[in-house]
Amino acid sequence: MITGNTELIAHIGYPTHSFKAPMIYNPYFEASGIDAVVVPMGCRPEAYPDLLRSLFRLENVRGALITMPHKVATVALLDEASPTVQVAGACNAVKRGADGRLVGDLFDGEGFVRGLRRKGLALEGARALIVGCGGVGSAIAASLAAAGVSRLGLYDIQPQAAEALAARLQAHFPTLSVRLHTRDPQGCDLVVNASPLGMNEGDPLPIDMDRLSAQTFVGEVVMRAEMTAFLAAAQARGCRIQVGADMLFEQIPAYLEFFGYPSTSADHLRALARLSY
Amino acid sequence: MITGNTELIAHIGYPTHSFKAPMIYNPYFEASGIDAVVVPMGCRPEAYPDLLRSLFRLENVRGALITMPHKVATVALLDEASPTVQVAGACNAVKRGADGRLVGDLFDGEGFVRGLRRKGLALEGARALIVGCGGVGSAIAASLAAAGVSRLGLYDIQPQAAEALAARLQAHFPTLSVRLHTRDPQGCDLVVNASPLGMNEGDPLPIDMDRLSAQTFVGEVVMRAEMTAFLAAAQARGCRIQVGADMLFEQIPAYLEFFGYPSTSADHLRALARLSY
């Protein structure tokens, strides 16, 4: 129950209707006796910098979960950015450091990779394709590179987004082979939809499914439904898949530690969560 | 349960530990199927103007409940102030009007007066004393004047606060007799503690209890405990009393209407509330 002593974790993005974090964190906080609550804040880009600064001047704001469309814009607002933030050029977690400094980190890539590993996918030397090079796509790219993939294809409808990500990746991972401006899945061990395609009814699929082999592992970041049209089509072709919610659950223990709360396992969080699809 | 579709009512003040509104509104919202939540925001004065403006640029903020120390400062931030706000020089409710305008009103005085009336106190022609002329004291003064009291004593440890309130009152209620700078309760039908005295252990009582008659009705705004030291002392002298929480419950139906939510009775709200003293 929320009282005057409850701490806030602001969940900031726009639109908010597909937010899942409140239904994951809040049942865990309640079950664990942690007096905190995640609250959605629907914020348009033009209002975001002022909002973030104002929120962190509040006494009972412990941190913020940042989602689309603010993950990239957040980087410039930080006083202190983790190495992952620097590589990905995106940030999804902010807390107040010493002297009121804003400290940022990025956990979706780590969550995505943890999920793949739990499903038995070997990433060392793998060839991967990421469609969508915004905040979450950049995060996954940074984490896949750190996990040892040998080749990474990057595609975005805004070519310069893919190019900028490639430059940051190659500065940190000089032996990584980066391929730009193709979304052909042939020959890939892993294909990731990190674009918003699938958020809305009738969206086209992110890749040409006829070029997708059953040996390719397919991952998704869209969480509008547990099984998106893209994942259903991949599964129909025989591919192993990772749903968007897996990335979400696997990254939450890292967030909890970052904010300084007692942490737990992704499985425990999933068992407590009150998500309805 | 909070989801991405939940609307926020920001409850802004500092400190927040004595906030009661979350435990009153939230059980009502839950019981009534209203997808909204009141969340505490501990905001220091220097951070407040930016915070208020930023919050009202959020898509899912329906309104704000304003409490100490921001009720007076809010008036200057409004685009549109109700007559009560103008008289009291204080505001405790803000919503977004047309074109994003900030619209403010003030309900504690109305809540206080409704509570007195329900207890059978006749206010027409009554003589009242208010100790504390900040936001809530000013609100009660405005509502008592509108309810027809004939004489109003105003006392504040900052004399200019009482004087400024007196000037605003007399501009709107020219026949009202205002007495300044005395907190002698003798001869009063009603004495109100609208000061923070009682918020902290060991606070002195707001008036000299030896001068208090059993015929005087005594009201309190402090809600730290159901029965404050002041109310206990008044009751021991035989006075009828009104606890701080009564003002709170009686004003909430007015707030709900102001925000555009389905309203209910103070008794219904009290039955649902999860307050612990």
Automatic annotation (TrEMBL), chains A, B:
Keywords: Amino-acid biosynthesis, Aromatic amino acid biosynthesis, Oxidoreductase
Gene this protein is translated from: aroE_1
Pathway(s) the chain acts in: Metabolic intermediate biosynthesis; chorismate biosynthesis; chorismate from D-erythrose 4-phosphate and phosphoenolpyruvate: step 4/7
Keyword NAD: no
Name of the protein in question: Shikimate dehydrogenase (NADP(+))
Domain Shikimate dehydrogenase substrate binding N-terminal intervals: 12-94
Species in which this protein is naturally found: Tepidimonas alkaliphilus
Molecular function per GO: NADP binding; shikimate 3-dehydrogenase (NADP+) activity
Keyword Acyltransferase: no
Enzyme superclass (EC): oxidoreductase
PANTHER family from the UniProt entry: BIFUNCTIONAL 3-DEHYDROQUINATE DEHYDRATASE_SHIKIMATE DEHYDROGENASE, CHLOROPLASTIC, SHIKIMATE DEHYDROGENASE
